[in-house]
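Intended use. Records such as the Cytoplasmic FMR1 interacting protein 2 entry shown here are meant for training and evaluating sequence-to-structure methods. They are not intended to support clinical decisions.
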Amino acid sequence: LKNMKCSVKNDHSAYKRAAQFLRKMADPQSIQESQNLSMFLANHNRITQCLHQQLEVIPGYEELLADIVNICVDYYENKMYLTPSEKHMLLKVMGFGLYLMDGNVSNIYKLDAKKRINLSKIDKFFKQLQVVPLFGDMQIELARYIKTSAHYEENKSKWTCTQSSISPQYNICEQMVQIRDDHIRFISELARYSNSEVVTGSGLDSQKSDEEYRELFDLALRGLQLLSKWSAHVMEVYSWKLVHPTDKFCNKDCPGTAEEYERATRYNYTSEEKFAFVEVIAMIKGLQVLMGRMESVFNQAIRNTIYAALQDFAQVTLREPLRQAVRKKKNVLISVLQAIRKTICDWEGGREPPNDPCLRGEKDPKGGFDIKVPRRAVGPSSTQLYMVRTMLESLIAD
């Protein structure tokens, strides 16, 4: 905000002029505070520079940042995000993480040589999506993180995202064929479920099987992913256009006296792009309305599916690890597994079966040991989910 917008500096200048006129800054302390604030506003990247300097005195800080960057790479590569803001956050964390790691103490290119991080993969991501929204009407070119890092100049040839090239990101007209195809396919599938669930009124009244709930769960997820994908397209094209304004040479309709914001918005879109924007936004709104009609059905299916998956895992899947831990007398492992089950299990009858052979480290009888896992439309609380994830991670972490 301080770097990109003049409003903060202009407000401070106006305040100083008013204070001098009213003679409110006569004492030395006020003068010193004003000078410090002026220097802070004048020095770009002051906050990130101070953070960088303070991190470098912490031993092994680059290892933690490398883990964070690797997690973001994994999430982005496997599309483990839902909303556009989550997608763009992963890219920004990658870039800012590399900037913080590259300095006097650590070198990201040496970390790449040791295969601690994968710069070529990040370069590919930044090449595909060059500009992302930052805040409000502010955007950032992801390559800027790389260009401002300490060892960029001597390793410039390793990056393709920093070279000026035309990005497919802004060409929404080329993406429209795929968007229309996805829209038609999903709307057709949604209509089939909508007729049986909403029109006939069988959505909430009838108890479905786990497979039927799972199908509705997957349908809701695909719908949300499509809405997110299309919304991200709109935001990314808009961001690209703001960073790359047109001029009278590229657009004959753009007058030479046009303001910079006009060149970035009013004169920066062709008729085809405007029609494509309207069509995509109409698809987003239309699909949102259709999914909204099935919200209660989707809610029921999502809660049932999550409950079933979590309870089956805790009550059935964890039995074998617990049996092996008891048999080999791994007390720490036993306590963690038991804590997970106590945290999340919703037992049939309200209590854990005391005669379960796995609790004694014994094999199940030949006929098997029957555990009836109940079915309810109740998801876990955020605390339960956090505790279970943390305890599971403690079992497999290095």
